[in-house]
Amino acid sequence: MHTKTLKALSELLKDKTISSRELTQHYIDRIDQYNDAINAVVHIDRERCLKAADSVDQRRSQDDQGLSVLAGIPLMNKDIFCTVSEPTTCASKALQGYQSPFDATIIKNCRDAGMVMFGKCNMDEFAMGGSNENSFYGPTKNPWDLSRVPGGSSGGSAAAIAARLTPAVTGTDTGGSIRQPSAFCGITGIKPSYGVISRYGVVAFASSLDQAGPMACSAEDCALLLSQMASYDPAHDMTSVRQQDYDYTTNLNDSLKGLRVGLPKEYFDHFADADIEKCMQAAIDEFKKLGVECVEISLPDVKHCISAYYTIAPCEASSNLARFDGNIYGYRSPNSRDIDSMYSASRSEAFGNEVKRRIVMGTYALSSGYSNDYYSKAQNIRNLIRHDFDEAWQKVDIILAPTTPSVAFKIDQFCNDPIKMYQQDVFTIPVNLAELPALSMPVGFAHQMPVGMQIIGPRWQEKRILNCAHQFQTITDWHTRIPEQFA
Predict the structure, then answer these.
(1) Full DSSP string of 356-376
(2) Nearest to 31 by CA among 41, 23, 43, 22
(3) CA 277 – CA 446 distance, rounded (Å)
(4) Who has greater pLDDT, 41 or 338?
(5) Percent share of the chain, pLDDT over 90
(6) CATH number of the domain at 6-258+398-481, out of 3.40.50.300, 3.30.1330.130, 1.10.1670.10, 3.90.1300.10?
């Protein structure tokens, strides 16, 4: 059952071949069997999940009219989304035991669609990291090789899909945190355009960059889930943008013949890994078989993306994380004498090293006398990168690029070298800075580990990139591969 797509599971539920309770119990059993090995799931209330499944079964037995296509299917969520049914801790001691009094908008949307909220996935603390090693609950391990990282910050989400502990999961992407772990774990994940999905109830890291999105086995599954997640939410999120249509499955089967595909030379000229380069070229050849026209393009300013991102994101993080002071909710240090020492001790004891590092970086860059030297210049670079993409869209319809410069690296490989860790995001960050949609999908294996390719589209063109990915996946089977020990 765990090898089936969301569409196939939906049909089984609709035909009453299986019940939502049976499906939910199946995945609970897999979590009990396999989660200890990979540490992907950090919160799950088994009894509550089964009661929610029973509720959907009861509705279906009475009248299945009005039930969504995903009704009765379990959905696991990254531990950054506020939920009334499970704790929301952002994998941090600072929020240990915190129970939200409300659901995030995307959680409400999926709950209203009849999906079974199925627990929370491990992540880098407050979404700060690219390896899922910065978690209060300990690192998540890559199901393809338990000595390697699953990527981050949505590493628990990606590992849970790769090990088939859930049929669908949510993630967030600030600088690549959906796409990079999707590449490392051999799954499909899409970061929509900024504004497609409401950020209400998503614990903020960098507000101008954060965007939620779906992660699943295939592009079709991601399209089905995105159709439930996305909505216009003016009452709660002023950056939410109304879309003409929230059904992202309608163009999946369109032909790609005549599509103009850009290959940015800045991404393809200097591959450090010949095996990844072979996977990229093989994937490009498959796209050519589908009738696309590939042309070389240039994005000259993306070389500055890491400097810009690691100025902007820490600045916004230092502001957003100021609320976690031990005063109203979350961890409060017992080692305080007055309010000043309470603030200092609570934050020092509750935050991990990476979170502290980014708060200090951001606070320094925003301090008096330095804001123009750092933050303002980073925003100028962001505008240049946007302009590069705008120029590219005059020539091409989509852009293909590698998702990561390497396959998943070893646990602890970069733990003492944050600069090298940050450089792992070099191919994903430009998309966030330009507020574009991008999808990562598996296109092969190098060194016995999955390799991911990005499909980047113009703003609001989620349907186009999902169509491209789905057509690729109809003639390849990389997205169906499962790690042997979890098959």
Answers:
(1) HHHHHHHHHHHSTTTTTTTHH
(2) 41
(3) 9
(4) 41
(5) 91
(6) 3.90.1300.10
Inter-CA distances, 145 with 162, 401, 410, 485, Å: 11, 25, 9, 10
Q: State the number of CA atoms in the 13 A half-sphere of 476 facing the CB.
A: 25
Q: Which two tokens stand for residue 213?
A: 């999105």
Active site positions, annotated: 78, 153, 177
Type of residue found at 37: A
* Six-digit token string for 174: 């600030």
Q: Which residue has the tokens 């574009």?
A: 436
Indicate if the pLDDT at residue 63 is higher than 90.
Answer: no
Q: Where are the chain's structural domains? A: 6-258+398-481
Average pLDDT (329-347) is: 90
Does residue 142 contact residue 150 with C-beta atoms inside 8 Å?
yes
Q: Is the pLDDT of residue 321 over 80?
A: yes
Give residue 365's Cα distance to chain centre: 27
Measured between alpha carbons, how far is residue 439 from residues 189, 255, 426, 466 in Å?
6, 18, 15, 8
Q: Identify the pLDDT of residue 67.
A: 87
User: Is 379 in contact with 309 (CB distance < 8 Å)?
Assistant: no
